[in-house]
Amino acid sequence: MLALRRSLTKALAARTQAPQVCSSFATGPRQYDGTFYEFHTYYVKPSKMNEFLENVKKNIHLRTAHSELVGFWTVEFGGRMNKVFHIWKYDNFAHRTEVQKALAKDKEWQEQFLIPNLALTDKQESEITYLVPWCKLEKPPKDGVYELATFQMKPGGPALWGDPFKRAVHSHVNQGYTKLVGVFHAEYGILNRVHVLWWNESADSRAAGRHQSHEDPRVVAAVRESVNFLGSQQNMLLIPMSFSPLK
């Protein structure tokens, strides 16, 4: 009888406790920092590329007066030609909303920057990303070229592929084959997508480092582990504009 009472007491206590969420359902480390990075990709009309770049160079200060520009590049290799890529930093979504409201009231920006450039552009894309928890944005030691490598990972989030991906990235960095600028995880756009922004002194030094890494058993082992969770990948070679904070 005493054993039965104890069982009923334990059952009642379990029912009255707050429901617990199983950690195995999580897709990765929580994003506690509100800071995010908006990726912009503009496809410029082929005959208007020079005009577009000149206008941006002349009037970019009208846009950077409202929020922080991380980097602005032209795409040299990879995918469609006559393309530019730029990254903007925001404290949180409320900050971005305030910036957009301010831009909507800024007649000088609209007349000198926005409207002329829209006429020169075929298509625009936007993606919201966070830096992964184990990475911070690094500034390269000097001018160079950048590679944006984009990985489409299998569904499941960083809880599934985060650690192997981290090891693959660090295997390149630790051996000095390239410099890591940042690793970004998509929040809005195509999900389960990760962008790795690399820096090299030149396209040739990038090629040399890549060839050496392919012969390094430590890199090969880490990459082979990571590709088990990979769907597809692509990359672009980026050339920074003269006004780009990341050069």
UniProtKB/TrEMBL annotation:
One biological process term from GO is: mitophagy
Which Gene3D superfamilies did the record assign? 3.30.70.100
Record's GO cellular component, any one?
mitochondrion
Matching entries from InterPro entries are given as: Dimeric_a/b-barrel (IPR011008), NIPSNAP (IPR012577), NipSnap_domain (IPR051557)
**One Pfam entry name:** NIPSNAP
Question: Which residues are in the NIPSNAP domain?
Answer: 37-136, 146-245
**Membership in a protein family:** Belongs to the NipSnap family.
| Name of the protein | Nipsnap homolog 3A
Natural source organism? Balaenoptera musculus
